[in-house]
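Field: COMPLEX_INPUT
Field: COMPONENT_COUNT = two
Field: RESIDUE_TOTAL = 226
Field: MODE = joint
Values follow.
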Amino acid sequence: DIQMTQSPSSLSASVGARVTITCRASQGIDNYLAWFQQKPGKAPKSLIYAASSLQSGVPSRFSGSGYGIDFTLTISSLQPEDFATYYCQQYKSYPHSFGHGTKLEIK
Amino acid sequence: QVQLVQSGGEVKKPGASVRVSCETSGYTFTTYGISWVRQAPGQGLEWMGWISTYNGNTDYAQNVQGRVTMTADSSTNTAYMELGSLTSDDTAVYYCTRMLLNSGRIDLWGQGTLVTVSS
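Field: COMPLEX_OUTPUT
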């Protein structure tokens, strides 16, 4: 099975800051990598697929990059509504494993 | 409007089974798969498996293999996940998700169903 390692596990940042979350796969997954955002008590929401493609309706301040093993999610200018937990997921091979999440909090 | 609407919360005793439904609307049911993801209280997301609504093929995660059955009814555009031999470790919110058949990526989530296992 492919293991997904996210870092950091938590992060404090201010509104307007630029933040980057990383995700590393235990083996190559090409670009079969998605990012999700989850707010407390809510279902996750799809943000990015194929490592760098923005889901329809997602603000352009979100971007993704990477290929193979190492991937990043960047938020260029944090907005109050972006404080949430973020998960990466590989869908290259079954089981489609998730990272353990990164909780983004307000500084 | 494309949406996945799940059944309501359940309370079950250890050893029992639970069935969660996921009613879809707004798209052609058989052109997307359905995967199931669960989240224990305060924990991360765990992929459980998926079903092809096109041909009924399934693939289950190792830790629920043998206890889980995923089915799909194209006459009602509804998918089901049944989990048996429940223990307290199965207490979680269960999500159905829409999955693209050609890539496997998730693009839409249901609202979640809380299953509580308690004696």
